[in-house]
Each structure stands twice: as structure tokens, then as C-alpha cells.
Amino acid sequence: MLLQWDRTGQGPVRGFLLVMVMAVIVTAFVFSGPVQSQRIEGRRREDLKIDEKTREAIIDSVVAALHETYVFPDVAEKIENRLRRKLRKHNYRSFKTLEAFTRELTNDFREVSSDGHMWVRRASAEEIDEAKIVEPTKEDIARRVARQAYNNFGFEKVERLGWNIGYLKFNYFANTKHAGDVATAAIRFLANCDAVIIDLRDNGGGSPSMVQLISSYFLEESTHLNSFYIRKTDEMKQFWSYDHVPGRRMENVPLYILTSERTFSGAEEFTYNMRNLERATIIGETTGGGAHPTERKLFADLEVLMSVPFGRAVNPITETNWEGTGVEPHIKVSRDEALEVARLEAMKALHEKAGRPEIRAGLEGAIARLEALRSPAQIDPELMKRYEGVYGPRRITLENGKLFYQREGRPRYEMIAISDVLFCFREIDYFRLKVELDEEGNPDALVGLYDGGHTDRTPRARK
């Protein structure tokens, strides 16, 4: 049984896979009603027209599923009351296709419950066919794993940024049975970094085993991460980080997690856990707010697929979860600014503990550059005019209120003001430019400042 946490129910699996008692994850669906004998795969997938009788049958089916499975029985009762009332008053009559009707039902679910994990939609031909599989073959499993492997199990980028800051971006938490080697390789690449940024801005969730694995690299010992209450069995399932991981742990390395409103379910769990353990700084937007593991139910005779939350997360520290509220970042900025801000925060942390003077000086310059890129200093227009001129092989020009720098035979760059006399560039991170002023405040020379402490000076050409 695939117990999934999926925000949209569309496209590739992005959900939270809660494995109950299984050695091997397989994709199947809980379904009710007779399975159609003919393959729907060959049918043209145009909008499916439905009538009042079909609408009523769909409501009967989804209501029964809610009462059987939904984690909050009282809310299931409220949802049923709303659906029955609208059906009785013929409020659904204008929704004449299955696609339109199921969208309206999803809206009804969420207006009553505010539960982003709950949805109903038309099932795909592939989903209906897969539901017929009682026991998936090795070939079935291999095909599913191959689809994930084609996307590298969600791992998109791992690299070492400037100042030995590690960066990892992955877009879902794949199950470690198949993706453990990829995840371990990515994390071990970062083992010697002085700070790490994990980018979850496009991560929609995934397997608790991957949450456990990645968390374990950043915690000193086995730690209670989260629990899930399961309604059907009335029990609490605990999830802990691992005692042992391949390679080095980074329990003392500054950790930054990037979020957006698209960060959802399992990705939120990882973020929420690290935040409450005070192990990471969260930077970006408030996350989507989905804390309920779900079960999919297929009503094959109606071509309807439904996602029903069957449990709820319970954090051992807060004794609650992020359902409906999302995870609040420590530093709230837009998703587009999050990486830049995280790099700035990481460099500030590294500057505080830097021992070598040249490293401290270099970090000071890099921090000043990033701060200027975010909020440039304002320079008096008259002073900017005085900066125009030729300085040996270097030249400064003023166009439309902006200063530009160019060295002979090289590209021209806009000058970003760190102060009245110090400038950096978007395109170059290892070089800054200082304007030397004479006693009367007029530009006398340009000094190039390079990482590593090297400088060069070129006097201004005199007329």
C-alpha cells in the first residue's frame, strides 16, 4: 500500500511516503467498486461528461472513504454535511464534467478542513491499470524505480560555493532503498565544507527514510525527529535519526535551509524538525502547511482518485505540527532572495570564527559585496561625475545615473557602491575597486583589491 503525502495529486510523485510494515515499497492503490474490464488506456482522454446520478455516486464513495480513514472524524462529518446539502440543493448541477466536478469537491474539502493534502480528481488510465496489479512484478518495480532514477531521485545540484560553503538542492525525499547511494554521495561531497545550505524551495516531500538519513548527518546522536498518529490503529509511530551513517557527520557545521511556499509535507517535516532542534537557520518563505500523511483511494468504476489524510504529525518538542500554518523561517525573504541571504549569513558565521587574518579580511570583503548587491550605497551625483575619466588602462564612465568600469580589452561592468569610494561588481566576486581621493576630494587613482590581499594602483590621467 502506498501511503502518500502529495500536495496536488498531479504529475510525478511528490508526496510523503509513510511506510507502515513493508520491506519493499510498491505502488498500489486502495480501491473500491468493480474494476472495468476494458483498458481505459486506449480511450481518448477528453473531458468526461457526467450526470446527476454519477455525481451522487461519487459523493457516496468519497464520504464513505472519509468516515473510514480521515484522521479527524468530526471534520469528516462536517464535509459530508456540506456535500449532501449542496447535492440536495442542486448546487453541483452546473458541473457537467468529471474534471470540473472533482475540482469543486476538492474546494469543498479544503474550505471545510483547510487540509492541503485532501483532494479528489479524475484518475489517469495508468493509475487505473496499476490498481489491477495485486502483486507487482519485478519489472513493474524496476520501471517505477527507473522513472525516479532518470530524475536522479530528485537530487538536482551539489556544489562547493565560495568560502567553502556547501550547497545541496533536491526536489523530493526519495526512499533510501533506491536513492540512499545518491543521497550519501551528495552529502559526503559536502563533508569538508565549513557551512552547508540545503535548498528545499522546490521540494514537495517524500520518504521519512530520507528525512531520517539526511537529518542524521547533521545531528550528533540518534534523535527523536517526529511521530505520526494513525487513526485506524490508534497508535503513534516514532521516527528517529540513525545511529550510524556512511562517512562523516557534520553536527557542528552551520546549516541553512531554504524554503518557499512550495516547500511541502516531508520537506516541511525536515525543516520543522531542524528548526525545533535549533539545528538550522531557516531562510525564505513560509512553507505550504501540509503535515498529514495520506492514503490514496481509487474508485475505478467512476474513474475517480482521492487523497485522504489518515494520520497527523506530532513533533516531540512542540507536541503539534505545521498543518495549515506552514513552517515560519527565521529570516523571511522572497524565494528568489533566499540563497543570496543564506550565503551572506553563512559568511558572517564563518567570519566570526575565522582564525587566519587573510581569511577574515577576505570574508569582510565578500560580506560587504553581498550586502551592497542587496542594498547599494547612495552616492552624491556630483561626486559620481568627478569619478569619470581615464586611469591608465582603466576607465570610468557615467551613463543614466550609473557608473561603469572597464579595463582595456575587457568587458564593461556596472559599479555597485559599497561606500562612496569602494565598489564591487555583480559579475566578478574576487575583485573590488577603490577610488583614491586627493586632499580636495577629487579622484586621484584607482586601486584594484583582489582576494588573497593583492592590490594594484593606477593614477588618473591628467589633462
Structural write-up:
By secondary structure, the protein is an alpha+beta fold. It folds into 3 domains: 3-131, no CATH class; 152-291 and 311-351, 2-enoyl-CoA Hydratase, Chain A, domain 1 (Alpha-Beta Complex), CATH 3.90.226; 376-459, Lipocalin (Beta Barrel). The protein has 11 helices and 23 strands. A hairpin with a 4-residue loop joins β11 and β12 (304-309). The longest helix is centred in the last third of the chain and has 19 residues, at 335-353. The termini are far apart. Residues 1-44 have low confidence and may be disordered.
Structural class: alpha+beta
Mean pLDDT over the residues: 89
In terms of per-residue confidence, which ranges show pLDDT below 50 for 5 or more consecutive residues? 1-44
Helix content: 25-40%
| CATH architectural label of the largest domain | Alpha-Beta Complex
Give the neighbour order of strands across the main sheet: 4-5-6-9-10-14
Task: Choose one word for the global shape.
Answer: elongated
CATH class of the largest domain: Alpha Beta
CATH homologous superfamily name of the largest domain? Answer: 2-enoyl-CoA Hydratase, Chain A, domain 1
Total domains: 3
Extended strand count: 23
Helix tally? 11
Task: Compute the separation of the termini in Å.
Answer: 82 Å
Q: What Rg, in angstroms, do the CA atoms define?
A: 28 Å
Q: Describe the sheet with the most strands.
A: 6 strands, mixed
Q: Report the β-strand fraction as a percent range.
A: 15-25%
What name does CATH use for the topology of the largest domain? 2-enoyl-CoA Hydratase, Chain A, domain 1
